[in-house]
Amino acid sequence: MKKDATTNSFINPEPHVIISCRDKDGRDNALSIGFIANVSFNPRIIMIAILHTRYSHHIIKESGEFVVNIATEELKSEVEYLGSTSGRDTNKLENISTTDATLINAPLIDMCPVNFECRVVECLKPGTHDVFFGEVLKVHCDEKYLNNNKSINWDKINILHS
């Protein structure tokens, strides 16, 4: 038998990802989020949702670019830190290795096995979060997770779930 649940019961957001970005002064930042989804195959578009009060929100709004970094179970403490600390006053990436993205001006998080370089194509505010729709321009993946046809073998990656 089913009973009514509270209206604040949400679908459990998964996977947890790290969104990285760079501001106009060249300062890198990152935050962890759980609101992410694929929304289009052609063009390839990913949507992420970020509260407007978050520091990264301002950076992405201004730059129009971000990287989706897929987090693994081994990165749980880093994900918790990046989601609970503001980058306004702290360099959250000072102890995290990064590499410059190739098509956008933002960092890739090296310890994440998969990184998606995205350019914002639209932003909507349906409620508490702004939804950024990012066209995927390039995908980076650790070689050990690629199949012979260069597709990502997601079953081999220990993706962080809640």
Automatic annotation (TrEMBL):
Cofactor requirements of the protein: FMN
Molecular function terms, GO-annotated: FMN binding
Keyword set, alphabetical order: Flavoprotein
Domain Flavin reductase like: 9-155
InterPro entries: Flavin_Rdtase-like_dom, Flavoredoxin, Split_barrel_FMN-bd
Family membership noted in the UniProt record: Belongs to the flavoredoxin family.
Name of protein: Putative flavoredoxin
Species annotation: Methanosphaera stadtmanae (strain ATCC 43021 / DSM 3091 / JCM 11832 / MCB-3)
